[in-house]
Amino acid sequence: MKNMIEQTLLHLGLNPTEIKVYLTLLQTGTSPASAVGKRTDMPPSTARYTCKQLVQMGIVTMGTKQNTLLFTAREPENLNILLEKEQNILKRKTDGLNKIVGDLKKLYNPHSTLPKVRFCEGVEGLISILDDTLTSKKPIYSALKLTNDIHPDVFIYLEKKYIPTRTKLRNRGFSLLNDNPMTQKYRENDQIFNRTSLMIPEEDFPFDQLMQIYGNKVAFYYSKKEGSGGVIIEDENVRNTQFSLFKMAWEFAKTLTINQACKIPPLE
């Protein structure tokens, strides 16, 4: 219970010293700063300063008796004052932002020549990349290698969300796969995903990082038990260049013996 109280007071904006003094005043009632200092093991000057800070916040009152400052904690319901202050601060920030949004829009250039780059770290970052690829309704072009080293949380995400969602979208997929037992099994689901996969010899052309081209974006990412992450680049020129390289590799893969039996549709 004590930890919950302290955590809540922290979220309301009190620091650990203020929390200690406030809780002491709640229990002792009206007290001079010196008594608060003794009960909290802090110098009288620190206790006095902290009590006055709580008075300014509106959750402690201050009075005088025989030239001694006395402090009293107000009833806990008065902690709502702190919430009201936060709400007022948020409102001022919101009003300020609304005033400049129009000017910011004038500065925004959607046709900037600089690519938009988003770095994504950790498992959550990788999942955000995969989620982003699911927003595309256009064909998806991939170069990947599957291994047993995939992070278990990513594996769960793929099973529970990515695969079911990708199956429903039905937009065309074209994949270049490093040839190994896992990608061969992956290839068996091509029809379900509306996808065509071609194999590339892993020993000659290893894909140590996965790549996907979708819409006007290119994503590079990796997923391993010891770490995951990647980057999304949103830029038409970067996308077109990567697609040209993909197309070149695709034409090469079509000539390989391992892909001769495949029914290979033209790239869209």
Description:
It is a single chain. This protein is of the alpha+beta class and 268 residues long. The protein folds into two domains: 2-79, Arc Repressor Mutant, subunit A (Orthogonal Bundle), CATH 1.10.10; 116-259, 2-Layer Sandwich (Endonuclease, Chain A). It contains ten helices and ten strands. The strands form two sheets. The chain has a seven-stranded mixed β-sheet with strand order 4-10-9-8-5-6-7, with helices on both faces. It has a three-stranded antiparallel β-sheet with strand order 1-3-2.
Task: Briefly say what this structure is.
The chain has ten helices and ten strands. It has helices at 2-11, 16-28, 33-40, 44-57, 80-107, 122-133, 152-169, 181-187, 190-193, 236-254; strands spanning 31-32, 60-65, 68-73, 116-121, 140-144, 173-178, 195-200, 210-214, 217-224, 227-234.
Task: Describe how the helices and strands are arranged.
Blueprint: H1 2-11, H2 16-28, E1 31-32, H3 33-40, H4 44-57, E2 60-65, E3 68-73, H5 80-107, E4 116-121, H6 122-133, E5 140-144, H7 152-169, E6 173-178, H8 181-187, H9 190-193, E7 195-200, E8 210-214, E9 217-224, E10 227-234, H10 236-254
Parallel strand pairs: 5-6, 6-7
Antiparallel strand pairs: 1-3, 2-3, 4-10, 5-8, 8-9, 9-10
List the defining traits of the structure above:
Arc Repressor Mutant, subunit A, 3-stranded antiparallel β-sheet, 2 domains, alpha+beta, 7-stranded mixed β-sheet, 22% strand, 268 residues, 10 helices, 50% helix
